[in-house]
From TrEMBL:
Region (Disordered): 1-31, 52-94
Species for this entry: Lachancea dasiensis
Polar residues: compositionally biased ranges: 52-61
Extent of Basic and acidic residues compositional bias: 68-91
Protein name: LADA_0H00320g1_1
Length: 106
């Protein structure tokens, strides 16, 4: 016959499962530290207002103005024209050199 001590009761196994689902002290401390760090990283409203004031001043100085944009376009156009002229000069020099080479016979 089987003794009564070898039979497991269902009540004991359910209490073990409940104990595992509880939040440990270490987890509580860890989450508390994470919340404190998140609060330190958060900005105060006054800090945000100061930053907003600084950004609004710098936006005007960094934005492109119409006159500056037109000047830059003219410079770009002039640069492109000069590069095209240099390319044409180089091609004509090469053609002249080839003609001189072809005129020389050995």
């Amino acid at each position: 016959m089987a003794s009564k001590g070898s039979v497991k009761k269902s009540g004991k196994s359910s209490t073990k499962k409940m104990a595992k689902s509880r939040i440990t002290k270490q987890q509580k401390i860890k989450t508390k530290l994470q919340v404190e760090q998140a609060n330190k990283k958060a900005f105060l409203i006054s800090d945000l207002n100061q930053r907003d004031g600084l950004n609004s001043k710098s936006i005007g100085s960094k934005s492109l103005k119409l006159n500056r944009l037109l000047e830059d376009q003219q410079k770009d156009k002039h640069t492109q024209e000069s590069l095209a002229q240099q390319k044409k000069d180089t091609e004509s020099d090469m053609v002249q050199q080839l003609e001189l080479i072809s005129g020389v016979s050995l």
